[in-house]
Amino acid sequence: MTRKILALLALSTVLSACESTETESPATQKVTPAVQASPAPATVSSPEASPLAASPLKTGDKVKALNGSFSDATVISVDEKSGKVTIKIAGQASAKTVALNEVVKE
User: Between 76 and which of 33, 47, 62, 86 could a Cys-Cys bridge form, CB atoms 3.0 to 4.6 Å apart?
Assistant: First the structure.
């Protein structure tokens, strides 16, 4: 009998944890009047905020590359259109193409 009660208690705890977080029923929720917002003026984003902004990286720059840990690398080429850079990591024979956000200029 005790096992059944404990099983029922565990089951009810699991089910209550799975329920949605809303505790109010739709009938008890307060209705707030909609506030009309004035139209906001259009904002023009600066080129600095654009993800396609000019990259400060150039061919030959020394960078730190994120590949598990930060490794010393040299920039071979920069493709600003796709947001990728080709680098040669020190100690490795082949070049690697990574995203611009995965390298930091030293």
Answer: 86
Q: What is the largest CA-CA distance in the chain?
A: 77
Domain count, the chain: 1
Q: E strand or H helix at 38, and its extent?
A: none
pLDDT in tens, 11-28: 777 777 666 555 555 555
- Structural tokens at position 72: 């010393």
Element (H, E) at 8: helix 2-18
What does the alpha-carbon distance between residue 88 and residue 73 come to, in Å, rounded to a whole number?
Answer: 5
* DSSP summary character for residue 86: E
Q: Which domain holds residue 68?
A: 58-106
